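Tutorial, part two.
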Amino acid sequence: MAPIVKVEDLTKRYESGFTALEGVDLEIEEGEIIALLGPNGAGKTTLISTICGITMPTSGSVSVGGYDTVRDFRKARQMIGLVPQEISLEPFEKVVATVNFSRGLFGMSPNRGFVDDLLRKLSLIDKRDTKVKELSGGMRRRVLIAKALAHEPRVLFLDEPTAGVDVELRKDMWDIVAELKAQGVTIILTTHYIEEAEAIADRIAVIDKGRILLVENKADLMTRLGAKELRIELAEPVDAIPDSLAREGLELAPDGRALIYIYDTRSERTGITRLLADLQAAGLQLADLQTKQSSLEEIFVGLVHQADAAPAKEPAA
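Running the prediction step on this input gives:
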């Protein structure tokens, strides 16, 4: 099956000479949730804007549902819903009118039942006839989502959708995302809350300095790059690691009450059995053992640091 979004060798270079995107290749499958992660200025919003046809590419191509976003802009854009970072709504318009207007912009006929059901799912039904200016910031963000879904798109872009909202509203939004996925909607999100990407995304794409560093299944990525940490709590604190354990690659906790051992889950042997035997031979008594898997945030930070340390490529002519 062809991907619903296909980005090929996409470059965006401004007149100033700044290159926001360079040689980006990305394929997104129908019905998946993909999290686009990257530091500020990495190119996330530019990539989304270009796929949505808001920003014109310098070179390369983008297609959505088989429609080229330049040659077949209207057909491609019809398939896309976009929830931008910034809240930009007509303050004196009522919620329902705002959503209906967005539906009409895409040539969709009025459908009160669909719109009311959408408002109900977003906990906006009781605000149906309320003016936007009277809503809280979190409710306005819900209206943005309703606007993006008003024309029944098959691809939904969420650009920092939970920025500045409270924990309860954030949880509600991810419940909505899960329901949309169940309906077959493809979702691409950017977020600074990496734990959210870890919780709901099927795949992770990491972008930095306008280049895609990787695109990988979340579980595979965490298995491949995620190390495990074994924390060995000692019955009595020590001032230093015994010389006989120097080869083990241990670190001593600042308070001297624990030893930290990092191991690769992919290795045939973790070395833990030998380590425990060597600890006993060194006369160290154990009080407790704890293990911790690397989080997606730690993996992401490591990838970006590796990319920053790599030699810069010469800009294309």
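The two ends are 36 Å apart (CA to CA). In part three we will examine how such features are distributed along the chain.
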